[in-house]
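Renewal narrative, Specific Aim 1. Our central claim is that a sequence can be written position by position from structural information alone. The example that follows is taken directly from our test logs and has not been curated for this report. It begins with the structure tokens describing the chain, in the order in which they were read.
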């Protein structure tokens, strides 16, 4: 199927198209932060602290007089980077463990018992515990979130692998002596791309919310790194008199996560044969 036709079917639903446009705007704003604003996100101006939105400061200033629009634009780089690295790490590890558990019967029970044990804890509590052990830093937040979301991917991939490995083309490959590695890489993994892509979009959204939650609770990335979560966490005590300093970072978090969720729903509906008639 050609890419233009795929995009046409994906964006047939206006809500999915709107989500894609919103996400594209957020990513563009983060990538072009140096172009869209002339302010440094860490430059302070105490004389202008808690200024209301004006022509010079589109979203106002925070408690230290820093331009809020610049901090949101540059903070998007950190928040989206953390989410993207989390999604990639969880997809790679989850796919690896899911393939092994689903294809090799002897590995199924031990791997899935570990997965079940990790999933028995609420995501945010497990993330807090892992960050507390590893220490607060951007890399450790990514590592903690990867460990939290890997079991989700592993369960989905395992379930799909159990189905695919029993299909006739896999049995035929085994019969002619194709190596196990080649069967996994050339025959099973390509048939798992649909659930993997959907999980990637959802984990991307979950990671943005999780990073913001960790920062809000004081166990996320260090306060000097301007992620959307640290902005909300550092400004909450001033919110009663300057609502904009938590409103705009909070809207960035909500719109990005919601756009990813809606886009993920659209991809799932497109790739799931049972739902194609409703597209």
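The sequence written for that structure reads:
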């Amino acid at each position: 199927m050609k890419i233009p036709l795929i995009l046409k079917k994906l964006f047939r639903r206006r809500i999915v198209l709107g989500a894609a446009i919103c996400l594209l705007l957020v990513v563009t704003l983060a990538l072009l932060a140096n172009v869209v604003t002339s302010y440094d996100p860490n430059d302070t101006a105490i004389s202008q602290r808690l200024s209301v939105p004006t022509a010079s400061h589109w979203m106002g200033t925070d408690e230290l007089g820093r331009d809020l629009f610049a901090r949101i634009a540059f903070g998007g780089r950190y928040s989206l980077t953390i989410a993207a690295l989390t999604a990639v790490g969880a997809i790679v590890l989850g796919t690896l463990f899911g393939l092994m558990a689903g294809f090799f019967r002897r590995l199924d029970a031990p791997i899935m018992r570990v997965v079940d044990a990790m999933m028995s804890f609420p995501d945010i509590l497990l993330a807090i515990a892992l960050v507390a052990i590893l220490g607060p830093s951007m890399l450790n937040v990514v590592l903690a979130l990867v460990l939290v979301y890997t079991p989700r991917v592993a369960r989905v991939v395992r379930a799909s692998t159990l189905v695919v490995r029993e299909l006739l083309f896999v049995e035929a490959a085994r019969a002619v002596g194709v190596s196990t590695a080649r069967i996994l890489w050339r025959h099973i993994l390509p048939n798992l791309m649909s659930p993997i892509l959907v999980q990637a979009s959802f984990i991307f959204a979950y990671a943005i919310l999780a990073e913001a939650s960790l920062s809000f609770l004081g166990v996320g990335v260090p306060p000097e790194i301007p992620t959307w979560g640290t902005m909300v966490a550092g400004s909450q005590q001033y919110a009663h008199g300057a609502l904009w300093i938590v409103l705009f970072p909070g809207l960035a978090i909500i719109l990005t996560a919601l756009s990813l969720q809606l886009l993920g729903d659209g991809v799932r509906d497109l790739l799931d044969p049972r739902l194609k008639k409703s597209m």
